[in-house]
Design a protein that fits this description.
2 strands, two-stranded antiparallel sheet, binds zinc ion, mainly alpha
Length: 186
């Protein structure tokens, strides 16, 4: 065993018991200081993963709450809403200009169908938000987020935002704590 050590970064000669390079501050490999440094690095990485997943989960959760409340409000008021829209002069003029034959029941059906789509989108987003927050079942979290976006296809902006958020969930893969198990199963 030699009694001389050299810094791996700057090459300075170091005392045999050195934990840090006195010249450049580099932590010396194989020392307690290095072990502590690696541990801090791992802890920092874990905190970053928790922060990213919390932030993405929060975004999806906000959407889920608005979609579910909006859908339920719309469905509960569907009859009134359909009547208001159908009897408005603007609507009557609009369908006349298009040459369409639309009944009040058609309007009600459309609102109901639209409401259930929003409700489904919100519920899927809520499931995705919980999975992302817990950092489990990455594939299901991605699938729910993507389906929630697809159900938003009637609004181009909503659809594009949904796809962007889905991409965020996809990129969080390594943040998921059960992901190694998922890989083993495949
Ligand atoms: Zn050095």
């Amino acid at each position: 065993m030699t009694d001389k050590k050299f810094c791996t970064k700057c090459g300075a000669e170091l005392p045999i018991n050195a934990q840090f390079c006195s010249s450049c501050g580099q932590v010396v490999a194989g020392t307690d200081a290095e072990a502590k440094f690696r541990q801090n690095e791992a802890e920092f990485e874990e905190i970053m993963k928790i922060n990213s997943s919390t932030w993405v989960s929060f975004m999806i959760g906000i959407y889920a709450i608005f979609a579910i409340i909006g859908a339920l409000a719309g469905l509960l008021q569907a009859g009134t809403l359909a009547s208001t829209i159908f009897n408005s002069p603007e609507f009557q003029q609009y369908i006349k200009s298009l040459g369409w034959v639309v009944t009040q029941q058609d309007v009600l059906n459309y609102i109901t169908w639209f409401g259930y789509m929003m409700l489904a989108s919100g519920i899927l987003a809520a499931i995705s938000a919980v999975l992302v927050k817990k950092r489990i079942k990455w594939m299901i979290a991605v699938a729910c987020c993507l389906l929630a976006a697809v159900l938003c296809v009637w609004s181009i902006l909503g659809f594009i935002l949904g796809l962007l958020v889905t991409w965020c969930v996809i990129s969080l893969r390594e943040c998921f704590i059960d992901e190694p198990d998922l890989v083993d199963e495949n």
